[in-house]
Amino acid sequence: MQDTPTFNHQADIVNSAIRFITSWFKQSKSITEELSDFFILPGGKVVGKNVIIARLKGIFGKSDEYVGGRYDIIDANFELLNGGKGMGFVEGVAGFRAVVEKRSKIISGPFKLYFALQNGSWKIVNIEFPGFAY
Fold first, then answer.
1. pLDDT digits (tens, 9 = 90+) for 18-29
2. What is the pTM of this model?
């Protein structure tokens, strides 16, 4: 992150969300680059990045491929906090076709990716995404 007033935090979290969604549609291992070292789950539970990566691998392993991924970002917002920290989110709708043994199923719905600004970088700390469950 740059410490100049011209740095666009909103564009940064939107671009990070786009990289995450694109990697999701490709079932790519590079999806992990956008993730924080820890996740904050409902109820205040904190889990490590390795738990989330294992969950993603399990989800991706259930389908042969994802086809025709589409998304629309509806809103993005952030708040800067003291000490170079911040919180933000990107939300919208996403859909894709999961193909399993030549049969396909459409998976779609709203998404919301929660971000935290840590060490000058926006990272995902919670995922609500069609087809993903903790």
1. 999 999 999 987
2. 0.90
